[in-house]
Task: structure prediction
Amino acid sequence: MSVTSESRDFEPAGPDQLVPAPESTRILLRARRDLTKHASPAAVAQKNLIGNNSGNTIFTHAVHRVVSTAGAQVSVDAAPENVARAGEINEKYDQYIVPLANAFRPSFVESLDKYSALIEQLKIPVVIVGVGVQLNAESNNPERLEPVRQNIDRFMRAVLKRSPSVGVRGETTYNYLRSIGYSDD
Result:
């Protein structure tokens, strides 16, 4: 049963009738590793705990700090993208946050497809932070992404079914997504 503003039986709740907010939001944050746990420089190097990119580690750590509020239980997801985990994620978490950098590129298409497959099975909100196209100084032409356009489109459609927007990394990505049919709406 639902109550709308047009219901004649509706009476606004008084202070003693308010339903308390949930104690916390269970957030699953995609990260290479849990940055709240110490790792020695030797372990970082030996196990490649930064995934060959310290910038992504710093970015993910910043996202972790932003979402780590008093009302949030943040768990780090360092497991590979796997559609078989969708049921577990849906059951245990209220939100899935994925910080990405230059994910729209041919060399990342296999991982992008795995993310798409997983996200298509999620029933919880999915927040994408900072996804971007990867072009280079020699060829800043987005036509280089044509071989992976369908993969990018699949990913975008999957996320936008679970979130009102996608956080992009800069004007180049914004313009590229607009050029393939995505709008500010």
User: Anything to note?
Assistant: The radius of gyration is 20 Å. The first strand starts at residue 25 and ends at 30. Confidence is low (pLDDT under 50) at residues 1-21. The first helix runs from residue 41 to 46.
